[in-house]
Amino acid sequence: MRTESGAIPFPWHGAASERQVSTGHQTPGLVCAHHHLYSTLARGMPPPPRTPTTFQEILELVWWRLDKALDLEMIEWSAKLGALEALERGTTAIIDHHASPSAIEGSLSVIADACAEVGVRLSTCYEVTDRNGVDEAKAGLEENNRFLKAGGRGYVGAHACFTLSDATLDAVCTLADELDVGVHIHVAEGPEDIDAGRRLEGRARDNWILVHAVHLDRELAGTIAHTPLSNMNNAVGYAAPAKRSNRIVLGTDGIGGDMIEAFRMTYLRAREIDVTFSPDVAWSWLEANWDLFPEAKDDRVSWSYDPMEPWHLAFTPGVRPTEVIISGEKVFEDGKPTRVDPLEVRAKAREQAMRLFERLG
Ligand SMILES: [Zn+2]
Fold first, then answer.
1. CATH superfamily, with its number, for domain 23-360
2. Ligand 1 centre and the CA of 203: distance in Å?
3. Residues 129-169: pLDDT tens digits?
4. Can you give the pTM of this predicted structure?
5. 339 CA → ligand 1 middle, Å
6. 171/45 Cα distance (integer angstroms)
7. What ranges do the domains of the chain cover?
């Protein structure tokens, strides 16, 4: 099936020969570079009052109603189920982006504890926004500050420029500088955020994660997180990451933690408009996720398939882990997690989903 080999002319698009990390049926732990663990319970939620017809309406009628309804107990089980599902797909590290306007304080620690219980590595942040007023923006900033100062791993989170005033955006940048971390922010996901490039020019830094960049009209410093499943689901357009000079990483934007699926979607979405696009390029973007979470490279995942190689995986559905070792500990064996009871996690998550759906209904 291979039609080409050799060097690929992009700085972050490593050729197959440079790949050292996957051998036979094993890989390091995979990393999800942009996730929303709070959205795990959303599947099957009651329909919105009317069908959203734009990206802005998807936010207003679905996501901003859902995040407002979350309490800490729902967040805990949403994160636990999300972490379990990630582990079950060989993802050992999650870079999460969190929002729960009615339960801000302590929310990041609840997510961190939930992931620790399952045994999955976590980086998280609270999504600062002015969409619910300035007090909530301040509470969001403080939750980032509290969590990071207490030793939590993460970024300073921000929703997107179109829900942030200049003053709040400045406060996000100042806090990130003070804490010596990057900012994790949605950038030009839909046309609503077309001004993001102008707003972030001069503000964005190399250690930022810029999520989506579908409608980004200029070069910005930072790593671009590409999320093809979510972009297709929201009909925001194709981000065409190959045209960018930034480091490209892959995320799910809350649609599970399956990075082999994200890789396949990345490949197919690119291939749809460019028949020369190689699985090697999509795989090199997945490998770049380790730049953001290097410890996951020490984790070991044994898979049901051999070889774990991009030209195979692009066309092989159903590849699953058989064993996962994180930080030297076997946390997944014979198709099951070792630290938590998956049936119990699913039952508790279902209970919390019912509570959530009642509030939304
Ligand atoms: Zn997102």
1. Metal-dependent hydrolases (3.20.20.140)
2. 20
3. 999 999 999 999 999 999 999 999 999 999 999 999 999 99
4. 0.94
5. 28
6. 34
7. 23-360
